[in-house]
């Protein structure tokens, strides 16, 4: 059986280099700049001493609750398409497409599990938990040693994982249409970023938390590109 690669080796090597460079950039942004605090300051009303959008219907209900339910339903639908017995689907989906759908749903699950485990182990506080914004936890840059905190467990951004897995849908266009795959992947990352941004507006996360979650998803995709094949012919 002949196995086809997802991407040419030079392209894959370049993407790994970009991924490593992004890791360095995220760490620098979090530790060497005040961007995390500056963006949180914009959302915090120092007169009212609160994140005024914390319980806003659009951000708390639509972008948090409804969005999570919507993308869960989409994931479950893809799960059924990927794993239902072929006799029930007939010729509606090719073997290659079902194979790629399996990667997509597994990547979504893997990313959610890893981020959830990291959140439970990490002591990082959410913006609304730090002293600067009315909480009790000290401010510590993301990628430095953190003290043990009861109100931590806020890193990486969890809600971002609800939608960032859509970036894996780009697999459906590989290897035959890499430009379309790239556009779909970018769109999926944008969805994840939008969900993370909504949480930042509420005071639930810093920018570095969101960017780290997006970076992790890109890492899973690169691992699939590197260690698996797009189809079996």
Furnish the topology, listing elements before pairings:
Blueprint: E1 3-4, H1 9-32, H2 35-43, E2 44-45, E3 50-51, H3 57-83, H4 86-89, H5 95-121, H6 161-164, H7 178-202, H8 207-227, E4 231-232
What would you note in describing this structure?
The chain has 233 residues and is mostly helical. It has one domain. 61% of the residues lie in helices and 3% in strands. Strands 1-4 form a two-stranded antiparallel ribbon. A two-stranded antiparallel ribbon has the order 2-3. β2 and β3 form a beta hairpin. The protein starts with a strand and ends with a strand. The model has no long low-confidence stretch (mean pLDDT 93).
What's the short story on this structure?
This protein has eight helices and four strands. It is mainly α and 233 residues long. The chain has one domain.
What is the 3D form? globular
Supply the helix-strand structural class.
Answer: mainly alpha
**Poorly predicted ranges (pLDDT <50, ≥5 residues)?**
none
Oligomer type = single chain
Helix content: 55-70%
Main β-sheet, spatial strand arrangement: 1-4
Number of strands: 4
Task: Kindly provide the radius of gyration, computed on alpha-carbon positions and rounded to a whole number of angstroms.
Answer: 20 Å
Biggest sheet details: 2 strands, antiparallel
Number of helices: 8
* Overall domain count: 1
Distance N to C terminus: 6 Å
> What are the secondary-structure elements, in order, as H or E?
EHHEEHHHHHHE
Q: Whole-number average pLDDT?
A: 93
Beta-strand residue percentage: under 5%
């Amino acid at each position: 059986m002949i196995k086809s690669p997802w991407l040419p080796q030079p392209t894959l090597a370049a993407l790994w280099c970009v991924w490593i460079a992004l890791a360095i950039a995220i760490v620098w942004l979090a530790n060497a700049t005040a961007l995390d605090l500056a963006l949180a300051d914009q959302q915090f009303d120092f007169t009212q001493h609160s994140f005024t959008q914390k319980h806003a219907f659009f951000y708390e209900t639509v972008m948090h609750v409804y969005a999570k339910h919507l993308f869960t339903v989409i994931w479950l639908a893809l799960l059924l398409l990927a794993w239902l017995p072929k006799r029930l689907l007939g010729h509606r989906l090719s073997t290659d497409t079902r194979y790629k759908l399996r990667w997509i749903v597994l990547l979504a699950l893997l990313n959610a599990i890893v981020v959830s485990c990291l959140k439970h182990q990490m002591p990082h506080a959410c913006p609304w938990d730090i002293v600067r914004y009315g909480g009790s936890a000290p401010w510590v840059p993301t990628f430095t040693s953190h003290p043990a905190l009861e109100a931590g467990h806020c890193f990486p951004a969890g809600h971002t994982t609800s939608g960032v897995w859509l970036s894996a849908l780009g697999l459906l266009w590989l290897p035959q249409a890499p430009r379309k795959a790239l556009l779909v992947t970018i769109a999926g990352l944008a969805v994840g970023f939008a969900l993370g941004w909504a949480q930042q507006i509420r005071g639930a996360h810093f920018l570095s938390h969101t960017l780290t979650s997006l970076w992790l998803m890109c890492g899973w995709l690169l691992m699939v590109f590197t260690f698996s094949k797009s189809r079996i012919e």
